[in-house]
Amino acid sequence: MPLFAMPPADLPSVAYVPTAVHSALPAVDRGTQRHTVRSGDTVYDIAARYGVSPTLIVHANNLSEGGRWILPGTTLVVPKASGSSSTASPTSVSSSTSSASSKVTVRQGDTLSHIAARHGTTVAALAKANNLKDSRLIYPGQVLTVPGSGGSSSSGGSSSGSSSAPARGASSTAGGTVTVRSGDTLTGIAARHGLGVSALAKANGISTSDFIYPGQKLRLPGGAASRTLDRAYDPSTIGDYKAGEKVEDTFLHYRYSDGVARSAAANREYLASIDVPSREKVRSMVVETSRRYGVDPQLMLALSYQESGWNMRAVSPANAIGVMQVIPSSGDWASALVGRQLNLLDPADNVEAGVVIMRALLSAADKQDHAIGGYYQGLASVREHGLFADTKQYVRNIKSLMTTL
Question: Which residue would you say has higher pLDDT here, 365 or 138?
Fold first, then answer.
């Protein structure tokens, strides 16, 4: 199998926001603030902290690559969105202490289902709290009220430090039933519980084309429970799951096939429904695994932090999955390297995949910069074309993180 690695993540931790996340930019007041970038900051995090659109920050600072490359120590102008009654303080959004509600800033790839799962609420409650007529129409940079979340205000998956999250979608009960939630489909419920759509429909005396509605209780045949996937979805396994659904299919200037985009959406949905390790736990896993394979832990900490912010729930439109942002084909390569099938949806396996891929790249490349660049660009491409401009910046970014993490 040729040496190639993962496309870049959709939510790298050292600040990236797609340049076309939302076409309608809010107007900007003359009032501005300044923010000095700290290690780990992203454009999304800064925008959430000040209650503005990340796109405003990108444009106000003329950030290239949509703000992908910002380094600690950089001073950014933070404009005030039109209509704000006063200049927001850095804690006005991200550290709400209200027991009744908090705020969350929508990130690229977010859905109400994902946000509800992360904050222990429901899609219906979110829609009601924000007066949303269509729960599908949310956009990056939008600030939502999260009802009854007791001050949790993570602005997306990569900023969550929680080690657990309630299951999204249909919620199981001990009696082998699920309660339909807003946005659920028979296909989605069946997939989450390892069932065929026809079997689920038959158990409930309905047709596979029948309408289901929030609050409806469905029986699970055979007392099925929420399943644990033994491997990530890819175009060869996704089948008709999520067929016809609008899913994110574009990253930077690349547009991915329907199969890849639907697989990424399904993997993202699955990871939103299960418990994942906290950032600190992920950090420990990266260090332990790196030492086990004889790879510099600081290099792997920097690379994994760049790729996902140590966030296991990150999945890019290219179907780069988890902490190490590994695509399934690269996961198969990593599996061959370790001699067993690695499950990219399992945090330990995901970290192991990234570490063994980097070990192979370090062994095959002439210099460390080419190995690091190979993780981003693909080593075959690096050998043929050299490091692209964005790859050179990626390498510099990794080296900077190696000294700060």
Answer: 365
Contact (CB, 8 A) for 404 and 40: no
62-88: pLDDT as tens digits: 876 556 567 777 888 888 754 443 334
Listing DSSP states for 43-78 in one string gives HHHHHHHHTS-HHHHHHHTT-GGGGT---TT-EEEE
Cα 30 from Cα 169, distance rounded (Å): 43
**Average pLDDT value for residue range 254-272:** 90
Rounded to two decimals, the pTM is 0.51
Tokens of 333: 């390569």
Q: Report the alpha-carbon distance of residue 267 to residue 328 in Å, rounded.
A: 11
| Residue 111, helix vs strand vs coil | coil
Give all strands (DSSP E) within 141-274, no chain letters: 143-147, 171-172, 177-179, 217-219, 250-251, 254-255
Other beta carbons within 10 Å of 78? 22
Residue 269 among the catalytic residues: no
Half-sphere exposure for 136 (CA within 13 Å, toward CB): 6
CA dihedral 116, 119, 122, 123 (to 10 degrees): -30
Q: pLDDT tens digit string along 88-101?
A: 444 333 333 334 56
How many Å apart are CA 219 and CA 203, to the nearest integer? 6
d(CA 306, CA 324): 9
Which residue shows structure tokens 């990530």? 232
Side-chain-side CA neighbours of residue 29 (13 Å): 14
Which tens digits make up the pLDDT trace of 1-34?
333 344 333 323 233 322 222 222 333 344 678 8
Q: Which SS3 state, helix, strand or coil, does residue 40 take?
A: coil
Residues 248, 269, 307, 352: which is the catalytic one?
A: 307
**Do residues 268 and 109 touch, judged by C-beta distance below 8 A?**
yes
H or E element: which one contains 192? helix 186-192
Q: In percent, how much of the chain has pLDDT > 70?
A: 67
- Structural domains of the chain, ranges and CATH numbers in brackets: 1-160 (3.10.350.10), 168-225 (3.10.350.10), 279-404 (1.10.530.10)
Q: How confident is the model at residue 326 (pLDDT cuts 50, 70, 90)?
A: very high
The answer to whether 204 and 218 have CB atoms below 8 angstroms apart is: yes
Specify the length of the chain in residues. 405
